[in-house]
């Protein structure tokens, strides 16, 4: 399982590629890529996102299921997806209420 | 206090205007990220894990209350209410928006600050002793020369695209508090037998993946040759430094690969061609700049303050604070106060906007409007009357800023690590916090005494782990954070690079390992006057290895 991530140009916020080439703010909403075809299509969206100056530095990351939840496999990507482990009041983890909104 | 001149003001404002346009063109797509990246880096703007990061220059760590208050304002208005003071005596904001950065730079320019030379392959901001201009053991204010170097290096057309970044540090006291021997150029102010001021010059020091202690290239460089000689070093480096491999591009590698003698000859040859020319530094110019750093008019005060002594007798916490966080001042009745940014369990170097405001007030009310940032990630009120210390302490305490731990094990350096940094392999801050909590007990910390613990989250060594008495390097081992311990490093006048003691420890075990090292020291020291580093140098690493890994 993979997805595509990037930082948003205007504010540097961490984003992931959504299903329709949109960019989403929480990894749970990311497009999960399970095939080479999906990946090829996703990379086209990613390039388009960069070309449109919406995101920068797009790359693919590995995902895994942990306790029923989807999360990035590497610690670095988990920290990007959540926020600093020492400041739970900052980053995505502090915006939990926005996820269900 | 250093005075901005018209040249500085025009130059910085012009730079902000340029950057406004560059950001506009980036957002509109006229500039690609590849084109924009070197431009933003020239203005201190990085992209980190969660957001952009803006590194603001605090040249030689000197600032005033108005400037500190502006940093607080920026933290509050454009960031998340705090800032991180770094080992380069700078401050970093971790969450600014790209679209806000021109406004932030404009606000900084209003108080004569900027983010120039905080990034990129140029001559970076010159760093210095945090007690410069105040310390009792200093014989010349190093900031005067740091400022002269700044004026020479700012936008120096020849040195804007060096093989790699270039760092200069300077100290004016025998006790080196500026880690000069681990800089590309390290300068130690000295006098020759005729009493003339000059510099001991070290070249090729540095940390990172290939740590090296600087090599002495001059025992005495006359004051008037400072710029010509620096130019000669930079020219040799610019010409011969490697550009094929960024990991081998620092001048330390050039020194190592070329050999000291040959490189010295190259520098001297270049110097011969440069000296006595336009870069000659006339003493009158030094005198002129010196006036920019004129000390405040100190009052004639008794050497010992009866008020402070009485307050200490009544307040044990104050007594403890004064025993660790005061540094001897050149004027009688004055002291320099270290404001520790290492509260127990805190993130080293972080200060909230409210704390910055409090510190700005203290500087204005009790410190002749002067503040310093230390390379050990603390702040300093350089000129405080001893009689005012009880009040200053009271205010610091009320704002979580009175940790009496300067120079103790909990006063550690830690880089932002994997919690923020795109280069990091492991987290630093949680490790620092755990160790801090483990050694929280005041009595125990003081029993251990002077101990420099430094933590980096990757081999780039922003946390200076190589020169920690105890150094910790976080690495990534197959997806797991692992922490290597080095022992015996030091960044003072007896600089040494620490030795890796053995295999690394997982996060859950690193605090225990540090405690084992400390307990081994306590069990083996000659007496309580033998510091950790002295004991290590006498004992070698064997007792520590045995304790950590079994005999």
Automatic annotation (TrEMBL), chain A:
Any single Pfam family the record assigns to this protein: DUF2849
Ranges where the record places region Disordered: 81-101
Domain of life: Bacteria
Record InterPro entries: DUF2849
Comp. bias regions, Basic and acidic residues: 89-101
Annotated protein name in UniProt: DUF2849 domain-containing protein
From TrEMBL, chain B:
UniProt-recorded name of the protein: Sulfite reductase
PANTHER family: BLR3264 PROTEIN (PTHR32439:SF9), FERREDOXIN--NITRITE REDUCTASE, CHLOROPLASTIC (PTHR32439)
The Nitrite/sulphite reductase 4Fe-4S domain, residue ranges: 119-273, 411-523
Domain of life: Bacteria
Keyword set, alphabetical order: 4Fe-4S, Heme, Iron, Iron-sulfur, Metal-binding, Oxidoreductase
Species assigned in the record: Pseudovibrio japonicus
Name of the gene encoding the protein in the UniProt record: cysI
Residue intervals of the Nitrite/Sulfite reductase ferredoxin-like domain: 52-110, 345-398
Pfam families: NIR_SIR, NIR_SIR_ferr
Presence of the UniProt keyword Electron transport in the record: no
InterPro entries: NIR_SIR_4Fe-4S, NiRdtase/SiRdtase_haem-b_fer, Nit/Sulf_reduc_fer-like_dom_sf, NO2/SO3_Rdtase_4Fe4S_dom, NO2/SO3_Rdtase_4Fe4S_sf
